[in-house]
Specification:
With 407 residues, the protein is an alpha/beta fold. It is built from 14 helices and 13 strands. The chain is globular and about 55 Å long.
């Protein structure tokens, strides 16, 4: 299966001019036509062009009630998750050899600490299999109310072939078997080629499988604003879109967050601590000199270093780390904790990913500290000021997910 591309394509894309018209919401109905880029051709219709404005509480409102969890909702579909998710990309190779038993024990420790939502994919090595072993341990060794809080979110990343019902269902059944669940809590769908409208067919089949009970909620990963709008216009009830979002990469706040606000779709973010670059480990280091700093010895460190280069370079990144360190010292937490809290507080962000190297390294305390820290206006301003000094990555790379699709 084709692996997700890691390379950052730095050639500037041709930008689309977004219409100045605001989305209209009248009598509970959103007119998505008003949000369409001015240069965009009319969409092919599979259904109506409206999405109900009956949405779950925003992350900010939900935080006031229960800081740790949030409900993703679209129509009758809903799923509550922990706002800090355990990302399992690190099980796919490149971060160190994973021992199965140690990994499952680490998953139990995270869940016992309240970090009970795990994010994986069909192509993340043994991730789905590890979750299957883990969830069986939970069923045997923890009370039913504990099991009720555990969530397993997976992704399906098919090649852009013809999306027939049988093909889609077989792929979903494989994940259900590996994860040992009757119904997937969430299936997040990725598509490689927007010129192939098969993604609408795939999402219709996934919606049918949801209605049949094989999936609880359908979601997206790495879709851009235009295609998210198109999917909603086709009345496909996605609850979230998982996208790259960090202090360095603020692209989701340019168009995507506004569409989410007006339709109820929420964002789950990854790359939020940039594979560990946003940490004390890289403060006061000089990676411009070979072998002078910590090695960039994982796929995530290498990927997000390219993001730093595109954004503004290592010197500006050091200025950002220094600003974050000052805020972290004030609140007696770590730089990654502050970096994650800053993104969780952004509009339309429901949850943020923290990668877990199961059985190899743990940051449970840092992750739990995210729930207790509150950034004040001075903190936010000091971080935002440095973030804005860098290049606008939407102009450098394109919209959310375009880094995976640009040649």
């Amino acid at each position: 299966m084709k692996m997700l591309a890691l390379a950052l394509h730095a050639s500037p894309p041709q930008l689309q001019t977004m219409s100045n018209s605001l989305l209209n919401c009248k009598n509970g109905v959103v007119n998505l036509k008003a949000f369409r880029p001015a240069t965009q051709k009319p969409f092919r219709r599979l259904g109506g062009s409206s999405v109900r404005c009956e949405v779950a509480p925003t992350p900010a409102m939900t935080t006031a009630v229960e800081n740790r969890r949030v409900t993703l909702k679209n129509g009758n579909d809903s799923l509550d998750i922990c706002r800090v998710l355990n990302g399992m990309w690190q099980t796919s190779g490149g971060w160190g050899e994973i021992d199965r038993d140690d990994a499952v024990e680490a998953m139990l420790r995270h869940a016992d600490a309240g970090l009970s939502t795990f994010d994986m994919a069909d192509h993340y090595g043994p991730a789905e299999d590890l979750y299957g072993i883990f969830i069986n341990r939970v069923r045997r060794e923890r009370p039913p109310e504990f099991l009720d809080k555990v969530r397993g979110l997976t992704k399906w990343v098919p090649p852009p072939v013809k999306m027939k019902r049988g093909y889609v269902e077989k792929s979903i059944d494989i994940s259900r078997k590996r994860m040992d669940v009757a119904s997937l809590d969430m299936l997040q769908f990725h598509w490689w080629d927007y010129s192939n409208l098969g993604y609408l067919d795939a999402l219709k089949h996934l919606t049918d499988l949801k209605e049949e009970g094989k999936i609880k909620t359908v979601a997206l990963t790495n879709f851009d604003t235009e295609r998210l709008q198109k999917i909603l216009e086709n009345e496909i009830p996605v609850v979230s879109n998982q996208v790259q979002h960090s202090i360095v990469d603020m692209r989701p706040q340019q168009g995507m967050a506004e569409l989410c606000r007006l339709t109820g779709v929420q964002l789950i973010t990854y790359g939020t601590i940039m594979g560990g670059l946003l940490s004390e480990k890289f403060l006061d280091t000089n990676l411009t000199i070979p072998f002078a700093g910590p090695p960039l010895n994982t796929p995530s460190l290498q990927k997000y270093k390219r993001m730093v280069d595109a954004w503004g370079g290592w010197s500006l990144f050091q200025t950002l780390l220094q600003a974050l360190k000052k805020v972290a010292a004030k609140h007696m937490v770590s730089i990654p904790t502050v970096a994650a809290r800053y993104i969780l507080d952004q509009p339309s962000v429901a949850g943020s990913m923290v990668g877990v190297r199961l059985g190899l390294a743990e940051h449970i305390k840092d992750s739990n500290d995210i729930f207790s820290v509150t950034l004040d206006e001075e903190d936010v301003n000091s971080i935002s000021e440095v973030s804005r000094r860098g290049r606008d990555l939407k102009q450098v790379i394109g919209d959310c997910g375009d880094e995976y699709r640009r040649a």
